[in-house]
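Our platform keeps sequence and structure together, in a single record for each protein. This encoding replaces a full spatial description with a residue-level series of whole-number codes. We quote a single record here, exactly as it is kept in our systems:
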Amino acid sequence: MGFFTRTAMDALMKTTHPEINRRQCWNLHPHRKPCTECKDICPYGEQIFTRPNLVKDWDPCTDCGLCVSACRSGCISPSPEQVQRDTSAADSDNDTIWIGCERSSRKNAVVRECICALSWEALAYLALNKKIVLDLTPCGECENDVCAAQLRKELTRLVEFFGEAVFEARFSLAYEADDYPYHVKELSRREMFEQVSHGSKSGTKKLLQMLPGLRSADDSSTDFRLLLHQRTKQLKAAMETPLKYGYHLPNFTDKCFGCGKCEKACRAGALKLEDLPDGQTRMVITPWKCSECELCVAACSSHGLDGLKLRQLSTLGPVSIHKCTKTLCKECGKPIAPGSVDGVCTVCRIKARTKKRQEEAAARAKQLREEREAKKAAEEAAKAAEAGADAAVPAAEPAAAAVNAAVAAGPAVPEAAAAKAADPVPKND
């Protein structure tokens, strides 16, 4: 067997594992307490996770799906094998699906390491196709408190999704061994061959999808929420009065002005802002993409989002949940709060303040520079004057000497002048 053939066979035969989108992890966003739910619920958490959003080694992973159901932000996506394994019971001929854990002594159609390994989306998808019986007989003796808490959380979410009436009609909780006995449906020879051929076709299709060049974008992105959305669309088209499904969606308030921070924070792409022709902006959310992680709520700094609110929907497709009128900044054109005094956003206000401070600093620097130049010119003029005075002193020294000599010879000159005056006529020899 060649190298490429052996590599391809290993890729096809090897059991895959969930994938983690680290950008969507709750721990990479503002929070007070780090989330470790995936690491805590995993039986091999210390061997697989170095941190909750960073995997050290996937080899110990059994693809049980516990981390997928426990992830609060939906950053852990299930493997295609897990999706196929958890939802394949919906194609069976039985009207009821019995689900239990490995510790149960009953004969259940779907057996997992724990019932909570099936996410509430997978259980909801199965309940929209068949009636569900949850075998809870081993739960009273189970010592795994983390799985018990996760199971209670999923059952509570299912009650919110279906409502109490539909939940009681679609789900049955078996607390005793004699509750809801498992009935094996007798199949004829033709039905047995149909089941075999159907299983062979689905297995061949799944095998072809695993090949690198034959998997489409829709197949690669299929998860429990998308399957649930597709099933609700089918039921809405087939029923005269569609069912209502409870889903937690962001609750926008009047303080929202369409800044778009929530849209940027949503890594799943569930939230979009659309501009309408009348000048308003509406918030459109796709519920089946939303993982109810509240990252959009944490990213809002203007109190435009007030947590999540349970809404009753007839479909999990895009819905408009809020409208607002944008007030744009005079400088950059970005949305600002309607009550802004100067009509500019915070960034432009900071830029204007910074520019004003820079201009004031430049004016002060120019004034100081002019004062320094004037002082320097005055000092140079004073030095020049002193230099001129020092140059005049040597030139005055000869004249001063002549004056001093004249003063010294002063008495003889007057006597000669007096004698000349007394005898004006010169004498002839």
Q: What stands out?
A: The radius of gyration is 46 Å.
